[in-house]
Amino acid sequence: MTDFYVVPAWQEAEWPAPTRTSRARRYAMTPPAFFAVEYAINPWMDTTTPVDVGVAMAQWEALRQTYLRLGHSVQVVEPVPGLPDMVYAANGGFIANDIAVVARFRFAQRSAETKAYSRWMSSVGYRPVTTRHVNEGQGDLLLIGETVLAGYGFRTDPRAHGEIAALLGLPVVSLELVDPRFYHLDTALAVLDDRTIAYYPPAFSEAAQATLSQLFPDAIAVSSVDAYAFGLNAVSDGLNVVLPAAATGFAAQLRAAGFEPVGVDLSELLKGGGSVKCCTLEVHQ
């Protein structure tokens, strides 16, 4: 497994950038009122590192305001005491084609989030459905066009992929993750528009890399430096890409490809192993 990945020189060549178009999106977010690192279920979590909830709340609010400024709507899901990771709303489920699939978490520490997000889905008019096997929502399920890219290897059970395909009526492409630092698909791959992705190749198995190369020959390959900064844990509206401010190399790649990078600081929430996308559940319409 390659430990350090440098963007190939050919990807740094200057080419005319295509015209990108934004589309208003609908997001759900949960404020980090009860955020803490009380346990370690991914390599980024360190229970000895102090967490400042006030800073986390301010950074989260800045992200919410960024979405509003860009013309998107944000629904707030009420946090629940005792669920410190509920701020990572993307893991709560997957909503598309008027179907709301609620998450089934691998770790007991997060299992009660299923009920909380199910209640929210019901409150906004959906009838939540679940899978028999573990699925961790948009952490491992990313929609691009009319296809779902589905990660497995650390959290979501690959047997859930077939269930997701049947529930949504959409094709699902399974992608194996092999580096525990990138334990969810949304930490190693970002959907930029209906045809374009960015990803970190060493996070994936050789078979998954081959699949991505075939499906997305124009994908942006991100360096180790930006991947370790959680740069791929980003949210795009087709033009504006909201990403961790520390991922400066990726921001330059985005700009060269015609996108508008919008850097935000979520360093406090990174202590729990999440950033922009982790905090954002998109309601696909």
Could you explain the architecture of this structure?
The chain has 285 residues and is an alpha/beta fold. It has one domain (19-282): 5-stranded Propeller (L-arginine/glycine Amidinotransferase, Chain A). Helix content is 23%, strand content 19%. It has helices spanning 53-69, 113-123, 159-168, 206-215, 224-228, 248-256, 267-270; strands at 26-29, 73-76, 93-96, 99-102, 141-144, 147-152, 172-176, 189-191, 197-199, 220-221, 235-236, 240-244, 260-264, 281-282. The strands form 5 sheets. It has a 3-stranded mixed β-sheet with strand order 2-1-14, with helices on one face. The protein has a 3-stranded mixed β-sheet with strand order 5-6-7, with helices on both faces. A hairpin with a 2-residue loop joins β5 (141-144) and β6. It is globular and about 50 Å long. The mean pLDDT is 95. Pfam families: DDAH_eukar. This is Amidinotransferase. One of its GO terms (molecular function) is arginine deiminase activity. One of its GO terms (biological process) is L-arginine deiminase pathway.
